[in-house]
Amino acid sequence: VKVNANFGGSLDNLEPGGADMPNAEYAVYKFEFTWSLTDGFSATQTKTGDAEPLPEYPEELYMIGASIGGWDWDAGNGIQMIPVHSNPNAFWRIVWIEAGVADAGIKFAPQEAWSGDFGIADDTQPAVGDHLKGSSNVPDVAASGTYMVWVDLERDSISITEPEVYLIGDAVGSWDAAVAENIFTVDNANEKLTITKELAEANLRMHAWHKWHYDWWQHEFNIFNGTIEYRGTGDDQAAVPVSAGSTTIDLMFKTGTGSITQ
User: Which of 148, 159, 116, 140 is nearest to 66 (CA)?
Assistant: First the structure.
């Protein structure tokens, strides 16, 4: 006999489809479920050992460097990265990186100060690509432009790539993430990402993407009064309704601004 069950509530009073069972201690447990014709299911929970310590991640992460504006925290050169919703190990930000500046480079820190800062392990590699976390500056990029910077502290890795941004939702008739026909074009000559597309009357939604991605809504953002605002770890953002018809959307991450033209 094979049985699939979805029990909640409590171990001494199992409820099919019930609420999550609270657990008082982080540890390793053995669960045993027993079924009888007369009494149905019962369950026991036995602690069998202590769990591995959970990793600790910073609540915030900042990037700084001459390649993105300067090395002076006090002058406001730090740029706060966006936390990936529900994944405290990961942060991202799409930024303009300038090539060929003096003292070029980028580093990261969990606050706007030189403490706990880090970079990459091998600064002889090209800046665009995947890097292990280390103490060296991210080197100069080959060409000025808009880049996705992704930090995954579980992987101990940093990735710098060309950005991928997509429309999603009822306005484009699909809730599938990273659909090729819904991608923004990277236009570095005009310092923006742009898309022109026929939209349905609905609420506009968009998201960034990366190969180390999570669910699309966990790196979502939108345009409010000409400003790009990020969902981060928050709830759904306010609706951004659009009318049916040809629509051009421009995203200027260098200035943190955007526009929706219909």
Answer: 140
Residues 6+ apart with CB under 8 A from 253: 94, 95, 96, 146, 163, 193, 228
| pLDDT (tens digit per residue) in 77-93 | 999 999 999 999 999 99
| DSSP letter, residue 167 | E
pLDDT category, 3, cuts 50, 70, 90? low
Listing DSSP states for 123-139 in one string gives TTS-SSEEEEEESBPB-
Q: Residue 120: helix, strand or coil by DSSP?
A: strand
Q: What is the DSSP letter of 57?
A: -
CB < 8 Å & 24+ apart, contacts of 230-234:
230/82, 231/85, 232/82, 232/83, 232/85, 233/83, 233/85, 233/86, 234/85
**Whether the Cβ atoms of residue 195 and residue 209 lie closer than 8 Å to each other:** no
Give the per-residue pLDDT at 41: 86
Task: Extract the tokens encoding 117.
Answer: 């800062």
Separation of alpha carbons 179 and 157, rounded Å: 26
Using an 8 Å Cβ cutoff, are 137 and 106 in contact?
Answer: yes
Would the pLDDT of 232 be above 90? yes
| Residue 2 reports pLDDT greater than 80 | no
